[in-house]
Sequence to fold (239 residues):
Amino acid sequence: MEKKVVLVTGANKGIGKEASKQLGKMGFKVFIGSRDLSRGQATAKELKADGIDADAVQLDVTSQSSVDAAMATIEKSAGKLDVLVNNAGIVTERTTALDTTEIAKVEETMQTNFFGPLRVTKSAQALLEKSKAPRVVNVSSTLGSLSTLSDPGSEFANFRILGYTCSKAALNMLTVVTAGAIKNVKVNSICPGYVATDINNNSGPRSVEQGAAIIVKMATLEEDGPTAGFFNDDGIIPW
Fold:
């Protein structure tokens, strides 16, 4: 049976690393996308020691040349891409006050969290179209839900961090737009929940194993599975 191939961006640590591990255990050939190649190689070595077919690719989602080079490496090595997990993400500012928000930091966040997935997905299209059942998983957040953040009674109503929330809302729209743009693809946004990772100084109550579960679920959807949706462990998240 032909092995399926997955690329996970930002996969040298945290949720991306765990999703790579879980998919690798399911028999996927895993490409560890990492801005710092040495860190990606260390993760790939660790996964290989666990019996997983894993290789690292240098991948800075803010650099078109880096993205194109990564796709060329995957094409040469595997010839296709069955699953793309757009996981790489950052938080550059934590203020919810408009007057103290730095535009440069918002732009930096958008470059990674929105333009990054756009750049990677666009570059990966040709490889995804070589798959019989391609899947794209965009790692978003409930903080990108317009319905949730506009509800004053929501537990997330006070988390209106401009750059991060706007980037995830934009990523959700990218999910909808690209769902019909690639042959046979299923594209979905997911929220892994408040997972303890570097992005929140490991303050989240959920484990990386818990956070990665919804990624793996959407990466391995059956033919009758949803597309252009937004999900967490509990089901559909309102846009």
